[in-house]
Amino acid sequence: MSRIPRTFKEKRRFWLSHLEAWRDSGLSMAAYARQVGISSKSLGYWQGKERHKASPADAIQRPRLVPVSVAAVTLPEPSEPSEPSEPSEPSEPSEPPARRDAGLCLVTRQGQRIEIQTDFDSVTLQRLLAMLEAPA
Fold it and tell me: Is residue 92 part of a domain?
């Protein structure tokens, strides 16, 4: 079991270092606490304490590296409008095609698809990613 410091300043430093290590670990809070031998309830307490203390500008977590895979997509060239064709049989729903003006398409681990235009607002994207990564 880790030695827990006595003074408030030492305790704060101790728990903030564990909060950062937990966030970087990719583990659940309980799994991380078990692994390093600390109380998950105390870790959660300090997480809440820091969250309430932080200003809105501080609420955005520092960026983390996550694994991604890149796939090339070839889009068909736009064609002339054709004559209406006979209605075909209903088919299985599929993913919507990528838009021609999409700068990139991000698919999260949970399968959410985000198409990001070349002229995207980076602040909005940061807020969206923070919401998607936040624990439920």
Answer: no
Instruction: Please tell me the total count of domains within the chain.
Output: 2
Q: Supply the pTM of this predicted model.
A: 0.39
| Pair 69, 49 in one domain | no
Dig out the tokens for 19 from the structure.
């909060």
Among the listed residues 23, 53, 29, the one whose alpha carbon sits nearest the alpha carbon of residue 41 = 29
Say yes or no: 52 and 64 in one domain: no
Q: Which residues contact 18 (CB under 8 A, 6 or more apart)?
A: 32, 36, 38, 43, 46
50 with 42: CB under 8 angstroms? no
Domain range for residue 47? 8-56
Any alpha helices (H) in the chain, and if so which ranges?
8-25, 29-36, 40-53, 122-133
Residues 73-119 pLDDT 10s: 666 666 665 555 555 555 555 555 555 555 777 777 777 778 887 77
* Beta-carbon count within 10 A of 15 CB: 20
Whether residues 70 and 124 fall in one domain: yes
